[in-house]
Amino acid sequence: MLEGCTPWPGERARRYRAAGHWRGENLADLLSATAATHHDRTALVLGGRRLTFAELDRRVARTAAGFVERGIAAGDRVVVQLPNVPEFVIVCFALFRMGAKPVFSLVSHRANEIRHLCGISGAVAYVVPGEYQGFDHTRLALDLVEEHAALRKVFVLDREAVAGAAAAPPGVLVALDDVDAEPLPLPAPDPSDVAFFLLSGGTTALPKLIPRTHDDYAYQVRAAAALLGLDQDAVYLAVLPAEFNFTWGCPGVVGTLLSGGTVVLADAPIADECFETVAREGVTFTSLVPTLAQLWVEAAEWSEADLSSLRLVQIGGARTHSSLAARVGPVLGCRLQQVFGMAEGLLTLSRPTDSEERVLATQGRPLSPDDEVRIVGPAGDDVPPGGTGELLTRGPYTLQGYYKAPEHNARAFTEDGFYRTGDLARLTDDGDLVIEGRIKDVINRGGDKVSAPEVEEHLLAHPAVAEAAVVPVPDPFLGERIGAYVVPDGPPPALRELKEALHADGLADYKLPDWLAIVEALPLTGLGKVDKKTLTADAAARIHAADTAAP
Ligand code: OOB
């Protein structure tokens, strides 16, 4: 395994192989094998663009050869930041084929996040859209090339952005279309090695990299596809960003493709547009965060679009209210599946044969019979059956350690390799998991995970801020928004001023505080730490008071 990663201990690795979970296959060959069977069937759709499996496989092979020609080598890390376009799939599988490792960045990430990803991964290349949603990614990429010695290539989706870019060192900027060469025989990547890196939602100030191996991810998508009964008739609508684990492989994009089905990419999650796409392409399933599901349900009540092809909607990424869960099936005319998951691995899902009661009230059961789950109290002891505690897990597709993070790993894992999820959960008598809350210092803003310490660090850098604490504040639509408690240094700053400063710092917009309270001091716990429980309760009370006072 790539240096800086933690392999599974030998005994467990042997067990996962013996059970047939890990089959020694790599994701690139799995796609080629599917393409050999399904060549003329449609693999990818975006608007009017359609690629058959044969075309996709050929584009992947030519792009891999093109990357080699441009000096990208096996083992190299490449930061990939693209919207939901076929090129995202092509670039990732091309990198898999040549043994280079994509680092999945969110399109909404800005200088602050990408600088960190380039630094920690030692990336040699960065793949960008060009200008996207008003942001000039090419400009940012060129700035980062100057800062990071290892970073020497920027591949740009939009050819015109290459021509229009300010002076760049020769050979650095390359249009993605030009990454194209006669396919080469390339050595197959090692299935037990890293295929790509996902990002952690982050309890620490900056996101950590999650190595996912070919073996572990191939197993995850195969098991998830089997659970949903996917076959070549599956049509998956990728509404959420494709780089989100939920969208990419639960079973998502990869699971659908490897089943010979069709992946339809949505370039925006707007309900009405998605409904037209569902009707036009005969979409059979999709995955949504609760916030989007809410919008879809509201829009569907008025829409005349034909959604009859839709068989299943998966909802996950944040807590789903039972009232929303109850509306999904009747309004969208399909089954609901609750999914609890994380980029780190463990997935729990309700099963197609579960009673409605179970589907509405729980987050289902672990995907694999070899997922081990424990619920523990603060001292690390198992709580009595049915009790709530921190969820710990280990298994055949759950990481054993973040990339190059030994100190953090020592805290994030138990000695016997269980990952401390930071989520509070309980198990029902039937073995279903119910997520009850969280102890990690993260805000789940409609499915977007925001590390409180990261936002605090940026707030503290502002001259008008002496002390800062960031906590979730309740929001009827997003579930939670970002609340900031600030002790000012001089005249109190306004929310807008802080947001502008953090934006100018290069922090992604979804991490900017939504709500501000100016206070004289932050409450402390007996141990002298900021008492976030008290602040969270205080924020909820203030919002409630403001809501009830409103005319
Ligand atoms: C998914 O992955 P991440 O890595 O963005 O976030 C993981 C965290 C979990 O630890 C939990 O705190 C929260 O998101 N979460 C949920 C949830 N699903 C995720 N909280 C309550 N209810 C749920 N159903 O979010 C993710 C990855 C794969 C599949 C689905 C979601």
Automatic annotation (TrEMBL):
Record region (Disordered):
367-390
Q: Which InterPro entries match?
A: AMP-bd_C, AMP-bd_C_sf, AMP-dep_synth/lig_dom, ATP-dep_AMP-bd_enzyme
Its domain of life? Bacteria
- Domain AMP-binding enzyme C-terminal as annotated: residue spans: 454-529
Residue stretches making up the AMP-dependent synthetase/ligase domain: 33-403
> Spans of biased composition, class Low complexity?
376-385
Pfam families recorded for this chain?
Answer: AMP-binding (PF00501), AMP-binding_C (PF13193)
**PANTHER family, per database record:** LONG-CHAIN-FATTY-ACID--COA LIGASE, NONRIBOSOMAL PEPTIDE SYNTHASE PES1 (EUROFUNG)-RELATED
Name of the protein in question: AMP-binding protein
